[in-house]
């Protein structure tokens, strides 16, 4: 049971019942073709402009696209839809991104023509290109940028805004409030005359296969899947379940409902009646009857959520939503860039990304891994990585320090526990061996733990050196 204004709300679901086991497939031909075209065109661009959703600034992105087979390119990260995001943590996001090498971060709202962030993008891009080596494009008189990002974050809208502002011309590329509008890497589009600047629009790229319907529902809810792939009423039902489970009852007042309700049919009926939306249909006898327009009501409910009218985003949910797309990007970038899946830090520690099961033999036999520290949550490990029992069968000790991706940093207790665990396997201790420390990408959660470990190692060495000098 939950409470709202002193009233008790009962009979809320604790699980979302899925009536089908079909999986959602979302990797249309334009995405596959787009990936190939992006790789082919990287050598012909001077700057990467990555557009992402400001509601999930840390996760779900192509986090290492700036390092490619053609070398380092200037990289600008544009976090769009800031009007829907909680910007009280904007400086924290900037610091986290800066620690990963993203120095140029701009928050924008493409719907606001006077947005200062949007107006600063092109001048910054020109400045970065002019101050960077252009390699094979050094003799080219014009500048070229590639716009990248996941679906439905505003890539095409950015191009049109820039074109309208600097060339005073109409839209050059189609936009829409649904994912998948841009179908391929288009021809170059001019957005500036002095200096001449061209951009390439690209399709949003997501994971080729949504493993279960629940993951598909989450992607659909935040607008990364077209609604009809799942069904508007099903998405609305999942949204209702999720809001109730999180005790987020703002929807009651926002939608002018009488009370919290866990029955989606009753909720949609009340929404439709409040909006005076009905449909005339024929019943089994052929007679015309009037009934609530459930599809319209469901779309209104979903739109209200996406517009930020039911509160800001909820970290745990978006960490799960973006897990598979980000994991695919990590695999993709490991294939085309200089980035490695793991790196040895010292004789004891390897810092790496999620260790897939097929990597077990290599880690144990070649890297001499005798222990693993995972900063992942259970859902991140479930499908691809070893469980504690599976590691144990390979003679590897396992410690899990679950930390939610995106917004949460490892707490002090977990960091202390992790450092103490690693220290048991130091080469100068009784149980020498290598410890593999990982999260999903090996860039944030696990790097924090390894950083703490290194600080302790350095302090110990400094102390020992100091004591030796004192004794001498």
TrEMBL record:
GO BP annotations listed: anatomical structure morphogenesis; mitochondrial translation; neuron development; phospholipid biosynthetic process
Domain Tyrosine specific protein phosphatases: start-end pairs: 419-456
Compartments, as annotated in UniProt: Mitochondrion inner membrane
Metabolic or biological pathway, per its Swiss-Prot or TrEMBL entry: Phospholipid metabolism; phosphatidylglycerol biosynthesis; phosphatidylglycerol from CDP-diacylglycerol: step 2/2; Lipid metabolism
A GO molecular-function descriptor: GTPase activity
EC number: 3.1.3.27
Alphabetical keyword list: GTP-binding, Hydrolase, Lipid biosynthesis, Lipid metabolism, Membrane, Mitochondrion, Mitochondrion inner membrane, Nucleotide-binding, Phospholipid biosynthesis, Phospholipid metabolism, Protein phosphatase, Transit peptide
GO cellular component, one term: mitochondrial inner membrane
PANTHER family according to UniProt: MITOCHONDRIAL RIBOSOME-ASSOCIATED GTPASE 1 (PTHR45782:SF4)
Chain's role: Plays a role in the regulation of the mitochondrial ribosome assembly and of translational activity. Displays mitochondrial GTPase activity.
Protein name: Phosphatidylglycerophosphatase and protein-tyrosine phosphatase 1
The organism of origin for this protein: Cotesia glomerata
